[in-house]
Amino acid sequence: MSSFEGKVVVVTGAGRGIGRSIAEAFVKAGAKVAVLSRSEGSCGPVAESLNQQFPDSAKSYALDVANFDEVQTVGKQILADFGQVNILVNNAGVTRDGLLMRMKSEDWDTVLDTNLKGAFNTVKAFQRSMMKAADPRIINISSVIGLIGNAGQANYAASKAGLIGFTKSVARELSGRKVTCNAIAPGFIKTDMTDQLDEKVREGILSSIPLGDFGAAEDVTALTLFLASAEARYITGQVVATDGGMTM
Ligand code: NAP
Fold first, then answer.
1. Predicted confidence band at 197 (pLDDT cuts at 50, 70, 90)?
2. Using a 6 Å cutoff on CB, does residue 93 contact ligand 1?
């Protein structure tokens, strides 16, 4: 595995699930990590446990990624604490599922503001620093739902498809400064988010996965670390699925 010694990584939604796995893997690979989540109760213990294993490797920051001003303020604090940012992983995400007939306007706004505007907010906070940093990488965690849609997830699908358009535009805009920007489209990964699904829905999903199993957070993490590595310098504006073959 590549070494990330000397690199500073910001991971949003790192209090649990996929984001936590990504933050832990970067620290194990030598990076320093800003661990962001909605509440100190989730990101605090993640940073604490990382610092116990690897002293001074992590700091926690509680914020709402959907709030532009809050993200800029926390962003300034992160740059003051670490001096630079090389790698940004936009992973924070939420679902508010429901058929369109019943979907409330707030459900649409919460999902779009968190999953899509959240990425805009963090890129605004860190792009200047990243343009000057070594091997700068932005990785946006989208979803297969952004590629194929899903009944009951119009808000989520729109946010994740929007994130793909955002990824390609950022990739083009920052390419002159060698900042790469890619999206990952995970399929169904075992986390708190998918544990909410009822048994019938889970069985239906399983039957649509050629490899016949749900993914693990580590599957997304391995791809994230590769796209963030120096070896991935020539890959930008891409959407890479890790989905057991669901969308082939
Ligand atoms: P999860 O277990 O529900 O964790 C979500 C994380 O995002 C939490 O740490 C949460 O903070 C944070 N978060 C949510 N809203 C936030 C906000 N407004 N501001 C800051 N942080 C916020 O989710 P997951 O399953 O690991 O999913 C991670 C990402 O992968 C999401 O973008 C999701 O859409 C995407 N994804 C997941 C799957 C899957 O099958 N699990 C599939 C495709 C894509 P707290 O811990 O403080 O609540």
1. confident
2. yes
